Amino acid sequence: MTNTIFFFITTIFLTIFSNFVIGLKGNYINRTFMDMPVNLIKSAVEINDSSSDEFSSYFNIEVLENNVNHYLVTSLNGKVDSYKISFFYFKYDENKDLIFDLTNTPQNVQIHFNCDIYKNFTLDKYLVFTIEELF
Fold first, then answer.
1. Under 8 Å CB-to-CB from 84, ≥6 apart: which residues?
2. Residue 107 CA from chain centroid, whole number
3. How confident is the model over 64-93, as pLDDT tens digits?
4. 3-state secondary structure the chain
5. CA-CA distance, 21 to 85, in Å (whole number)?
6. pLDDT tens across the length of the chain (135 residues)
7. Alpha-carbon distance 15 to 17, whole Å?
8. What is the rounded distance in angstroms from the CA atom of residue 92 to the CA atom of residue 19?
9. Using an 8 Å Cβ cutoff, are 107 and 101 in contact?
């Protein structure tokens, strides 16, 4: 009888403890991505001064992706086995619909982050940055 009670209490304690650890790990990974320093994104903005009176700014794709990847590799080292990250550069058409921006001077980006925290616990988050909102 006492073995059954001990087993039951131990099982409950281990379940609560493992859920607590998984929650802490998930929150750390979530905060790492969602609280990404905006300076990483701002440092990838370049100014195009091709015309004499107008300046336009855009994301340098290579710099942006390198900054974000370096930040995530450094911050998540030892916290998660693997993750997936993708960049979606977009613009608005005349109907305010989103379309791919296939130019070398995108002004909007959506960053998608996905990782498995533990077995079937998955973190799937998006961040959107636009030149207008950054400055």
1. 112, 113, 114, 115
2. 18
3. 999 999 999 999 998 888 999 999 999 988
4. CHHHHHHHHHHHHHHHHHHHHHHHHHHHHHHHHHCCCHHHHHCCEEEECCCCCCCEEEECHHHHHHHHHHHHHHHHCCCCCCEEEEEEEEEECCCCCEEECCCCCCCEEEEEEEEEEECCEEEEEEEEEEHHHHC
5. 24
6. 778 888 888 888 888 877 777 778 889 999 999 999 999 999 999 988 766 567 789 999 999 999 999 999 999 998 888 999 999 999 988 888 889 999 999 999 999 999 998 777 889 999 999 999 988
7. 5
8. 42
9. yes
Tokens of 26: 């998930």
